[in-house]
Amino acid sequence: MESKRKRLKINNRIKLVLVIVAILIVALSLVITLGRYVYLMYRNHVLESQGFYFNSSVMSDIGANHSINNWDGVSAYKITIDVNNKKNDLLSTKTDIQYDIKFECSENIRCTVSKTEGTIRTATKTDSFIITFYPQDQFEYNQTAEVKVSATSNYPYVKELSATYNITITTSKFSYVITDHPNDKYLTLELINSATYYEVKEAFGSYDIGDKISIDDYNQLSADDKSKCYSANVTLNFDPNVILLDMTENNYLNNKDTAKTEEIDGHNYVNEFGFGMEASSSAKIIFYKNDSTQDYSYPGNDNSIIEVTVDSVEE
């Protein structure tokens, strides 16, 4: 009985020691994290006191995190990364900033970068580069990938910014990206329909509602029968106070009757329109920015400036 009590005491002491060790490990981790944060805050204060600003809307000195969940797992995907030399609209670095770019991708995707070094000119106050990634092999649903990127200034001072992009694919064969840069007059919305077939929405001939039709068979149909099928129907909704549709855009011109408008200062501006997309196709649509200094890249920003709603077939 006495030895059993001793064993219980020893076991309790071991448990207590383990708990204390675990608490110390957590505390040490918090101290290290806090210490790094305090150091970075102090270092940034020192650099800013010298009139040096090196910032980004998508990267940070403590490492930003983003999620990409609208990749189709098939097409090339582009991420636009910006850097600037501003603290605000009134304060900016008075000399050019040179910086180096590094990136790292998980093994299931292949990455390229538009350049490995850049310069932020005092006149433009901003610069950018693009990372493009592709699937290495067939990308399965629920599979994830990761892209890590950093930009490090090397003149006149050293400062590192970084971000991590966690990537998953949607079950839909439809995706979109918005390409934009600060001081660009317009942005480009690119829509990609990777579905490789059509679906019957209105019965005709030997086809029933819900039947799938290959691209080759679809191309043999009459115009009337084609109108009874679809691969992706897209609706775009946006604020004309912020961006304006290029009114020469063919998808809009071919569907003007379905467009919705909003009156601003006595004039009507399009704020919504829809159109159909063919299977295995893409479309690029230009929108003019009312404030050219803004960057509406997506992904990059957490939310898309254009609301894209799609009714698409599933493979």
Tally of DSSP helical segments: 4
Helical coverage, percent range: 10-25%
CATH class of the largest domain: Mainly Beta
In the CATH hierarchy, the architecture of the largest domain is Sandwich
| Total domains | 3
The secondary-structure element order is HEEEEEEEEEEEEHHEEEHEEEE
Q: CATH H level of the largest domain: which superfamily? A: Immunoglobulins
What is Rg?
27 Å
> How do the strands line up in the largest sheet?
1-8-7-3-5
Regions with little confidence, pLDDT below 50 for 5+ residues: 26-40
Largest sheet: 5 strands, mixed
How many beta-strand segments? 19
CATH topology group of the largest domain: Immunoglobulin-like
What structural class do the secondary elements suggest? Answer: alpha+beta
Mean pLDDT: 83
Outline, from the CA principal axes? flat
End-to-end distance, in Å? 69 Å
- What percent of residues are in strands? 35-45%
